[in-house]
Amino acid sequence: SYGLHDGGPRHESKDANTQERAGACYIKEHEGVMTQRDIFMAPKDKPELFAEAKTTLFTSHGFRFAEVCCTEEPPADVYSVLYRTAFQEWGYFDSSNVNINGAYELTKNALNSNMQGTQTDCPHRERLQYGGDLVANSPSSMHMFDLSAFYRKVVHDWTETQFSNGAYTETSTWHDLLADYGFGEGSGETVWASLPPVLTVRHMQHYGDIDFVRDTFSHHVEWCQFLSSKFEKAIQGWFGYAGDNLEGYWGSENENGLGDWLSLQTIDTYLTHHAFYMATARSIAYMAHMLEKDGSADEGTSFIGKEARSLARKIKDHITTKYLNDNTYQVQKGWDLSPGPDLPIFTRMVPGKKRCDILRNWLQFAGSGHDESWHGDEEKLFMNHLSSKTSKALLKKKIIGEDEDGMLMNRRFRHSTSEGILGVRYSLKTLSDFGFHNIALTRVSGDNFPGFAYMMSFNATTMWETWWRSEDLYSRNHPMLGAVAEWASSSVAGVSLAPTTTGGKDLLFWPRIPTNADVVVYASATQGTKRGDAAIAWRFEGVKLKSARTVKVRIRILAPPGSNALFRLPIYGCAYNATATVSYARTLPGLDTAKLNAASTCSSRRKSKNGFSYNWEYNSETEKWHKSLNKKAIGTPCASFLFDKSLADTNWSDSKLVTFKPEVPFKRSFDGDESDKLVELTPGLYDIVIEQWKLQKEIPDQPGYGEYEGSLGSYCSDQSTSTWNIEDATHLI
Fold first, then answer.
1. Among 211, 267, 695, 724, who pairs with 348 as Cys (CB 3.0-4.6 Å)?
2. Helix axes 131-144, 195-207, angle to 10 degrees
3. Which of 43, 76, 83 is nearest to 61 (CA)?
4. Counting beta carbons within 10 angstroms of the beta carbon of residue 207, is it exposed (0 to 12), middle (13 to 18) or buried (19 or more)?
5. 221: enclosing H helix or E strand
């Protein structure tokens, strides 16, 4: 079926008695899970009295476009209400790039429609609270919203239904779903069922609720004990591999776990099972440590914490033994699974002395310029219904490809994202954190399949469950891939909580200023905290960017009262010969006025639909897809209030010079001692100017980073970030 949910012209109504049709009113069923129908039962003796029809008084649906079928004229008094659980929205992001903005909006819209007492996977069909989805996208949702009460309730949803043997399920209430991927006796798959302890740690980082840690600690310990009692036997049964290097293991197709669910790459469930077993142990160690710091830990809690920390190290060492192979960190050299080395690098599993070599090896895939074909059914149907002229245009742009089987959708790795539920976060964060932010930017902003622009090209307003265009089974309102939103705020703009903070007190401002002006030329974000809003905005200034070799970068930072903030200087090779100065506002200006002005300007831009500019539409008469240039609000670039004209008269202090030393490795990460790359900021408003920021041409798609021999910078060689800190909630998993 074509054109479903496309927001296009009205469709003619069809026979109300036909149940098996696939059309505008009812899409074809897939095992009874797709239907959203309201059934009204009129009285037998007075069937014409519609007002007396019996139905539910309140009906909830998830949709972008609704059609009332089988009436001669559209009813005039039908309306819908957007609603969710009442919590504060406190996180925002914007940039100059429509596609990156769109990815952020797709995530926020999906989250807004999936939080009604529980965080569901989709609002229109299953409506289940899956642990894997929350593991994947809770960093984004906690950036966007104050979920202190909501996520406390979510964890209790699991603890209240925990089995007496200690098992957590893959959903907060047990369903006979995906049981073969768990450990039996009611338990869920490792990643999905490990959500409660992981989310408790993230909750502590954001909100500092030590009572919540204390109340749930014993439940999480019971889960860890259950997992420990079942894990090795289950792994042997699923994989059955011996030896140090998993000889003969080439990944899986979900037959022994969910892993990086719906990745277009082969998934590595052996890695994800072990990584989240380690995450459970790390979570127990973290919570015990926090209870000790609070002074409320007894001897038993301290002992459990030491045992959990030892178990976490043991699991990490086991993974390293299996995966460390010369200069690679993967089961078979040259075989790229998902997640790949990005997960071990991000979670501080890779030995420090090997990290640069492993990063360079992984870049051959992560920054690869190669293309692959995608054989998806819906994409094949799409290309079979293109005009010759449209096909030639798409072939020229490498949006589609051609082989002996005909036209196929083209996957351009440098311009698309293909990881699944977990890998999106690890790949983007690792690239941006370790000096290759430009690759992450290119992949997220790409127009090619698979990616966020591809979703929007088919009128998406919420995140899809899959990269491909599923017309029957998979959801089109599903925040599963939403980790991109937290990456946008923390990496593209550059504000996040410090990894070792509790209660959101310590902030990290770390804008990954791009090495060129091809994708982003300005970005901004706001991160809410218990103490107030933290905000950052940066932009290139003063030159014609297309021809410039160097550029001025201006950064504005707002640190809220009661916070401790660190500004981390960008130290890419572009910083050679650059100088940076820092000034602060002697008197805080009227930020409320600036916010109102920025919001008003942004609202006008959105009403003018300056966002994503086209979509594909299906013409049922010609039976052809065509590209329709329809301007949309989604993705509209807006400027930050920190650059509003009302702040022009701010009384700034004298500038303080900050020096760049790109050749010097970090003495530590941003959670310990002094560093040449860090500037401590007290609460207030700051203006930072970097002069002579060098712009570089991006490495061409071919060969891409497949044979990259250039500098890796000092990030990967910073030994202080190679070991997990027990207070680090960000890199716990």
1. 724
2. 10
3. 83
4. buried
5. helix 210-238
Q: Which residues contact 248 (CB under 8 A, 6 or more apart)?
A: 241
Provide the token pair at 261.
Answer: 């669910």
The token duo for 34 is: 């797709």
d(CA 352, CA 370): 30
CA atoms of 117 and 112, how far apart (whole Å): 12
Count CB-CB contacts under 10 A for residue 643. Answer: 17
Task: Classify strands 506-509 and 564-568 as parallel, antiparallel or unpaired.
Answer: parallel
Residues in contact with 331: Cβ distance below 8 Å, sequence separation at least 6, in sequence order: 245, 246, 249, 250, 251, 268, 270, 322, 323, 325, 337
| pTM, two decimal places | 0.92
Question: Tokens representing 201?
Answer: 């740690």
Would you tell me how many other CB atoms lie within 10 Å of the CB of residue 215? 15
The model's pLDDT over 433-455, given as tens digits with 9 standing for 90+, comes to 999 999 999 999 999 899 999 99
Summarize pLDDT for 312-340 with one digit per residue, the tens.
999 999 999 999 988 888 877 666 899 99
> pLDDT tens digit string along 355-410?
999 999 999 889 988 788 888 888 888 888 999 999 999 988 888 888 777 778 88
**Strands 550-559 and 532-541: what pairing?**
antiparallel
Other beta carbons within 10 Å of 715: 19
What would the two tokens of residue 161 be? 């239904």
In which element (H, E) is residue 556 found? strand 550-559
R_g over Cα of the chain: 26
Question: CA of 622: how far to CAs of 69, 410, 617, 626, 687, in Å?
Answer: 24, 25, 11, 10, 57
Q: How do the residues of the chain divide into helix, strand and coil, expressed in percent and rounded to 5?
A: 35, 15, 50
Q: Which H or E element spans position 684?
A: strand 684-694
Length of the chain: 733
Question: Pick from 611, 603, 601: which is nearest to 632 by CA?
Answer: 611
E strand spans, 113-251: none
Chain centroid to CA 70: 41
Number of helical (H) and strand (E) elements in the chain, helices listed first: 17, 18
- 451: helix, coil or strand? coil
d(CA 558, CA 563): 11
Cβ 561 vs Cβ 507: under 8 Å? no
Q: Which two tokens stand for residue 384?
A: 């079979």
Q: ∠ CA 659-660-661 to the nearest 5 degrees?
A: 120
How far is CA 640 from its chain centroid? Answer: 22
CA distance 430 to 730: 12
